[in-house]
Amino acid sequence: MKIEQLSLARQLDLVFKELDHELSGLDSGVVFVQIRNNVIGKFGIRHNPIAGRDGQMEIEDGGLNDTQRTSFRAMALETLKFKRNWTHGEIAYDFTVRQGMILVDATMESNYNMASLMIRYPRTNTYNKDSGMESTS
């Protein structure tokens, strides 16, 4: 089976399964997925788990527990309902744990390509020659 044959939701589920161990060691960060033609390509976590105090760099203890990781995955899948009419872009899930509860903010970024628009729309001169603004195309 090819990745293109999997739904975006199933692909996102696979991303969270792949990142499960890494998320178990983090209590904040940003999970990102880059999408092209409704296929997840690059994905990962942006985080800085090393905190400096009194001149010493230390790795923070803790991370997301099983319940928090399951909740995070469910919320991420739920955000796909808000994706509309775009096939290229990035979704970033900013997460943190506060008072034992995981909080997630999702940011969706759609990407479009002007070259693909030129194929779909007929080429017309939209500028009036009398206005002094002429099309350079």
SSE diagram, text form:
Layout: H1 8-23, E1 28-36, E2 39-46, E3 50-53, E4 56-59, H2 66-79, E5 89-98, E6 101-110, H3 114-120
Antiparallel strand pairs: 1-2, 1-5, 3-4, 5-6
Instruction: Report the total helices.
Output: 3
Q: What number is the mean pLDDT?
A: 87
Shape: elongated
Oligomeric state of this protein: single chain
| SSE pattern | HEEEEHEEH
Taking all Cα atoms into account, the compactness measure Rg is 21 Å
Gap from first CA to last CA: 43 Å
Largest sheet: 4 strands, antiparallel
Q: Total strand count, please?
A: 6
Poorly predicted ranges: none
> What is the SS-derived class?
alpha+beta
As a percent range, the share of strand residues is 25-35%
Spatial order of the strands in the main sheet? 2-1-5-6
Instruction: Report helical residue fraction.
Output: 25-40%
